[in-house]
Write a structure and sequence with these properties.
Elements: E1 3-8, H1 10-16, E2 20-24, H2 32-40, H3 44-49, E3 57-60, E4 63-65, E5 76-80
Parallel strand pairs: 1-5
Antiparallel strand pairs: 1-2, 3-4, 3-5
């Protein structure tokens, strides 16, 4: 089974303590929100980073998607706080 590259930005990265990691790809029908809950269950910085999923945004293979999107066959999942312009 292929892996899924997780990329973290801003305070998500700071809480977890790493920029990215490779995990075993979950089943295609698993949603981003469900994966975030699984990661939060790791405890520590993961629990801190993912305590408020409503404050997170995601991109699958560099395309913005809602957290209820299935991961499908994506190679990369980026997780980050909302981005604002200025």
């Amino acid at each position: 089974m292929a892996g899924l590259n997780l990329v973290y930005f801003a305070w998500v990265r700071e809480a977890i303590g790493r920029d990215e990691e490779q995990i075993e790809r979950p089943a295609a029908d698993v949603t981003i929100g469900a994966l975030i809950a699984t990661l939060a269950a790791r405890g520590g910085g993961y629990a801190e980073a993912f305590a408020r999923p409503d404050k997170l945004r995601a991109a699958l293979d560099q395309r913005f998607v809602p957290l209820d999107s299935p991961i499908g066959e994506a190679k990369e999942l980026a997780i980050f706080p909302p981005v604002t312009g200025g």
